[in-house]
Design brief:
Layout lengths: L16 H24 L4 H32 L4 H16 L1 H12 L4 H5 L3 H5 L1 H10 L6 H13 L1 H14 L1 E4 L2 E4 H6 L6 H15 L3 H22 L4 H9 L3 H28 L24 H13 L3 H12 L3 E2 L11 E5 L4 E5 L6 H19 L12 H4 L1 H17 L3 H36 L6 H16 L12 H4 L13 H20 L3 H11 L5 H7 L7 H20 L1
Parallel strand pairs: 3-5
Antiparallel strand pairs: 1-2, 4-5
Helix pairs in contact: 1-2, 1-4, 2-3, 3-8, 4-7, 4-8, 8-9, 9-12, 14-20, 14-26, 15-16, 16-17, 17-19, 19-20, 19-23, 20-21, 20-23, 20-26, 23-26
């Protein structure tokens, strides 16, 4: 089994004739859109809208293929200058047609009655939800000239600041044990069974951030100020309001979830303190032991063992899931191991035109790494459910985009617990599960608090690295409370998390809490309904691109605006914490 992904289905390299052919085709698509807009007013409504949708689809398909390829290449080698140059070239081309894209959206937003036109056109009918959202979004657009300027400025503004953070963290050298390692490698040592290694790695990690803290602080301040300025100009009111709109999620749902989380924080404190006691700490858990394994968890899974375990586990759910996983392993969808220049963390990128996905991980053989891979393969399963949808209908909002991935984690955890043959093994698996869930609930809550504070305060003053460190510590105090040792937290979590550095997507945090708790509820439904749940689940995943969050819940009989649903999900985690403490 190969340990690196294969991108040949897209392009065999920048020298591949197909690459330049698609670049030329993308430019032609941009020119075609420009010409179409110029004559749109003289076209009958049905012909005008169908022509625009077809042209926009073609442009989106080419741009997604090109930009997706460059993103994948750069994610495994942040120092590839040629790829960076090509990325800038494509960004310039996209920015050049931003005014036309805005004009096209305005034309689509001017449809008098989408439902009436849908009765005349199959294409419009398929895109009716997309067109209704476009109509609503048009009320937030600036002038065509201003939108074009904002897009062009983002290249050297927000997007560039985000690229700087990615470059600095991907190339950062960490001094450790007489040598140098990458940031991903040092962060992976947080899972080491050796407490001395965990502590030394934590100290080396924090020391390394001092080399880049000022540069990344500049990135975060300028990026967030750009977002705030544009939100104000466009009339959203705040970055959070925009994020909720992008998520198709009501503030009522967010508040219900956050209120439930806040009430259950003391339950998580109990888990953190119990884990701290087991590791010999009396005043809460120090950060360097937050991810420490407990019980007999020293098994290292080879790639073949990881594959076989996942196939066996998810074969008990549905053959469609295990078949997809087999395909991912067999056909080089996955880039497994950390290496110099490769970005940290993990992600899944859909290549739905090819019925495939590509997955990046920093695999270390631990059960946690197997769990991460199951998470990303859940994204691939979600992508597969949307393969037959129209291209511009394939973008699910972030909260439900994390549902299939987190459901896989919940399913894997439950399966592993059933297979456990000893108390020590059960303790190790239960701790791994709680470790991940506490990250998705408690740490995500701290990140939500931190980003809220950054948006609020960065409008009043420039937040130096020291300010950002204090805001992060304040957020961790509110979220973790007495669960964490007061003198050993992580003031630099704002540097290593790329989620803060996307100019087009703020609050890339609460969707993880939503996905985790929603998945908990869905797993409970699965346990009640058995195989009858699976087609309903797949249909919900398929329609996430056209539904609101609340409509997704209603499809399965769930009212997400009520705190009771979130409390029920948190109660199941609380029961696990009680079992953990008893073990």
């Amino acid at each position: 089994m190969k340990s690196e992904w294969n991108l040949d289905i897209l392009y065999k390299g920048l020298e591949d004739p197909a690459y330049e052919k698609d670049v030329a085709a993308f430019q032609l698509a941009c020119d075609s859109l420009h010409d179409l807009i110029a004559k749109a007013a003289d076209m009958p409504l049905k012909e005008r809208i169908e022509a625009l949708l077809t042209c926009m689809e073609n442009q989106r398909r080419l741009n997604s293929r090109l930009s997706g390829y460059l993103h994948l290449r750069l994610s495994t080698n942040a120092q590839d200058g040629k790829i960076m140059s090509e990325q800038n070239r494509l960004s310039r081309m996209s920015s050049a047609c931003a005014a036309d894209q805005t004009a096209a959206r305005r034309i689509l937003g001017d449809i008098p009655d989408v439902d009436a036109l849908a009765e005349e056109s199959d294409l419009v009918s398929e895109y009716s939800s997309f067109l209704k959202r476009t109509k609503e979004d048009c009320s937030y657009l600036l002038s065509d000239e201003a939108e074009a300027m904002a897009s062009a400025m983002d290249m050297t503004g927000g997007s560039a600041w985000g690229q700087l953070q990615s470059y600095l963290t991907s190339t950062l050298k960490v001094d450790y044990d007489g040598g140098q390692v990458t940031l991903s490698q040092i962060r992976n040592l947080a899972y080491s069974p050796d407490p001395a290694v965990r502590k030394a790695a934590y100290e080396a990690e924090l020391a390394s951030y001092e080399k880049i803290q000022d540069s990344v602080a500049f990135s975060l301040n300028n990026l967030k100020n750009q977002v705030s300025m544009l939100c104000e100009k466009r009339g959203y009111g705040s970055a959070l309001a925009l994020s909720l709109k992008q998520a198709r999620m009501s503030r009522q749902t967010l508040d219900a979830m956050m209120e439930a989380i806040t009430e259950y924080l003391p339950v998580f404190v109990k888990y953190f303190r119990k884990k701290g006691e087991l590791l010999g700490h009396t005043d809460g858990l120090p950060w360097y032991d937050l991810f420490a394994p407990l019980g007999k968890s020293d098994k290292i899974y080879s790639l073949e063992e990881c594959r076989d375990y996942l196939l066996t586990c998810f074969g008990t759910f549905t053959p469609q899931m295990s078949d997809l996983m087999q395909e991912a392993f067999d056909h080089e969808w996955i880039d497994f191991y950390p290496r110099d220049g490769k970005r940290g963390g993990a992600f899944c990128s859909g290549l739905t035109d090819y019925r495939q996905s590509r997955i990046l991980t920093n695999y270390d053989g631990s059960f946690s790494a197997v769990d991460t891979l199951a998470h990303e393969l859940g994204h691939a399963f979600h992508n597969r459910q949307m393969e037959n949808e129209r291209l511009m209908n394939r973008n699910s909002p972030m909260p439900v985009a994390e549902t299939a991935s987190t459901f896989n984690e919940v399913f894997l955890g439950a399966y592993a617990m059933k297979q456990a043959s000893s108390r020590e093994e059960r303790l190790a698996l239960l701790e791994n599960d709680l470790r991940e869930k506490s990250q998705c609930v408690v740490d995500i809550y701290s990140r939500y608090l931190f980003e809220s504070a950054v948006f609020e305060q960065s409008r009043k003053k420039f937040l130096m690295a020291g300010d950002l460190k204090q805001l992060m510590l304040d957020a961790q105090e509110k979220a973790y409370g007495a669960g964490l040792a007061a003198d050993c937290r992580h003031p630099y979590m704002w540097i290593c998390k790329s989620h803060y550095y996307r100019s087009g997507l703020s609050f890339y945090n609460f969707p993880y809490a939503f996905g985790n708790l929603f998945a908990q509820g869905l797993y409970t439904l699965y346990c009640k309904e058995g195989d009858a749940f699976i087609p309903r689940y797949k249909e919900m995943l398929r329609t996430t691109s056209v539904h609101t969050i609340e409509e997704d819940g209603a499809l399965l009989g769930i009212d997400l605006t009520k705190k009771e649903f979130w409390e029920d999900s948190l109660k199941s985690i609380a029961a696990e914490i009680e079992e953990f403490c008893a073990l």
